[in-house]
Specification:
Strand order of the largest sheet: 1-2-3
Number of strands: 8
CATH superfamily of the largest domain: Intergrase catalytic core
Number of domains: 3
CATH topology of the largest domain: hpI Integrase, Chain A
Distance between the termini: 99 Å
Helix content: 40-55%
Strand content: 5-15%
Length: 379
């Protein structure tokens, strides 16, 4: 280092005024300081010299072991263009996180409590509790900050489930680690870096017109409204379970789905088509639940009596969507009826191609009061 370091000289600032520059740079690196008075510049220069001397003195007492270690580490970092300071800045936050992290068991419970207080639906909380519960069993007591995307990937692949189910588990883990990251229990979200399974979606299976008609014919009077609302209004099973008769307005031909009972936590109205009204009117009540408590047993008995050996997943809702789109050709309106935010979901998850002639027959399935039988008009 030059003896006259730092150098002081008179220069002009950007306003063309004369100032004194204290140049503390060494080999082009370092800072420059500007002062209007010479005595202030001299004071700063003296302080910098004292600081530099103290640093030199401290180096005399720097242990040889640490000096060698620093040189070795700096050499290892050199190919990556990183310094020891870069390494410390990178690693220190991780050490700080490790000192305040929690186990995966505690994290899941904390997150579920928080989401419940935030107003999440019981259905959503139940799904998270089930999927994350399996994860905590596999990694009982492991700290959140210790997880890597590799081991989460391995766990997801070990489930031996369909691609769709695996991706549902992955989504739950992303939610959990997002919560962990927001609460400073980990620096990154390892679940987000896992591989997403390729989903091969089969087209949804629906009831034929004759199956739908036969199902209603074989159903007992307590079950008829449940089946009709699923088949001709497309309500979700969970919505049907919670639906009350005072939310079915036959006069205005609308069904109200309150936000508290909707999967999306968003209120909507569902239109009652004429044939649905015909099914509901004989059974309408001023109040009470639409679905009987034992609807599952009643539905199983009705479908077996109707000769439907294999019950398609979400059969009533998928049938409604497919036949509705074929008859009315309005994906946007159908999306609103289903409680979706985008018509894209209709085509991705719900629609099976239906011939217009069959759609016409479906929406003419009505009870025949005179004979007490079901009529499915032929086209």
């Amino acid at each position: 280092m030059k003896q006259n370091w730092p150098h002081i000289r008179k220069v002009k600032d950007k306003n063309k005024r004369e100032v004194f520059l204290v140049d503390a740079r060494i080999n082009g690196e370092g800072r420059r300081y500007f002062f209007p008075l010479r005595r202030d510049a001299d004071t700063k220069a003296q302080a910098l010299r004292t600081e530099r001397r103290n640093q030199g003195t401290n180096m005399l007492y720097f242990p040889e072991r640490l000096r060698v270690e620093a040189m070795e580490c700096a050499e290892k970092l050199k190919p990556f263009g990183k310094s020891l300071r870069d390494a410390v800045n990178f690693y220190l936050p991780r050490l700080q996180i490790e000192n305040r992290t929690c186990t995966i068991n505690a994290l899941v419970q904390q997150m579920l409590n928080a989401k419940k207080r935030d107003g999440a639906s019981e259905r959503y909380l139940g799904d998270l509790r089930s999927r994350l519960g399996q994860f905590t069993v596999s990694f009982d007591g492991k700290n959140v900050s210790d997880f890597t995307n590799v081991e989460i990937d391995q766990w997801l692949r070990s489930l031996g489930v369909s691609a769709i189910t695996r991706n549902n588990f992955r989504r739950a883990l992303i939610v959990a680690f997002n919560f962990a990251r927001a609460n400073k229990f980990c620096i990154e979200n390892p679940a987000r870096e896992t591989a997403k399974a390729k989903e091969t979606r089969l087209r949804p299976q629906i009831l034929t017109v004759d199956q739908a008609a036969m199902l209603l014919e074989r159903a007992g009077p307590d079950l008829v409204p449940f089946i009709a609302l699923g088949a001709f209004a497309g309500l979700r099973r969970a919505e049907l379970e919670r639906l009350e008769w005072n939310e079915v307005d036959l006069e205005s031909a609308l069904i109200e789905i309150p936000a508290s009972k909707a999967k999306s936590a968003s209120e909507r109205f569902v239109k009652i088509e004429p044939n649905l009204a015909a099914w509901l009117e004989p059974h309408a009540q001023p109040r009470g639940n639409v679905a009987p408590l034992n609807y599952r047993e009643l539905l199983d008995a009705a479908r077996y009596a109707a000769g439907i050996a294999r019950w398609p997943k979400n059969a009533l809702r998928h049938s409604f969507a497919s036949y509705h789109l074929a008859k009315f050709n309005d994906a946007a309106a159908l999306s609103l009826q289903l409680g979706h935010t985008s018509p894209h979901l209709v085509f991705k998850h719900y629609r099976q191609v239906v011939r217009p002639k069959e759609a016409e027959r479906y929406w003419q399935i009505t009870p025949a009061p005179a004979r007490g039988k079901i009529t499915a008009f032929a086209g």
